[in-house]
Design a protein that fits this description.
The protein is mainly α and 99 residues long. The protein contains three helices and two strands. 74% of the residues lie in helices and 8% in strands. Strands 1-2 form a two-stranded antiparallel sheet. The chain is elongated and about 60 Å long. 2% of the residues are buried.
């Protein structure tokens, strides 16, 4: 049974997937720190009150908190671009290696 399990891990790339999930989580933490500590202080110039995490929009009696959404959107875009860039580099090298 142990041998079957190890074959399963090898055949389906489970180890690589686990490593990718761990690295992705750490990349997300790194990008969040970059956005919170470096990028957003510059953008607070354009946000009234200066604290972008508590930025709200009032629509009648409804108050929408857009600060966390805006931060998460920026985090997502940076992570998506970095993953795209990394995958493009890796796939390009893989294609060259196959020829």
């Amino acid at each position: 049974m142990r041998k079957e399990f190890l074959e399963f891990l090898k055949n389906y790339g489970v180890i690589g997937l686990a490593i990718a999930v761990i690295l992705g989580g750490k990349l997300n933490a790194l990008v969040s720190a970059l956005v919170d500590g470096v990028l957003m202080p510059f953008l607070t110039f354009f946000i009234p009150g200066g604290n972008w995490r508590t930025a709200t929009v009032d629509i009648g009696s409804i108050q929408l908190t857009i600060g966390p959404l805006f931060g998460a959107l920026i985090d997502f875009l940076i992570v998506a671009y970095l993953v795209f860039w990394f995958a493009k580099k890796v796939l390009k090298e893989d294609t060259v290696a196959k020829k």
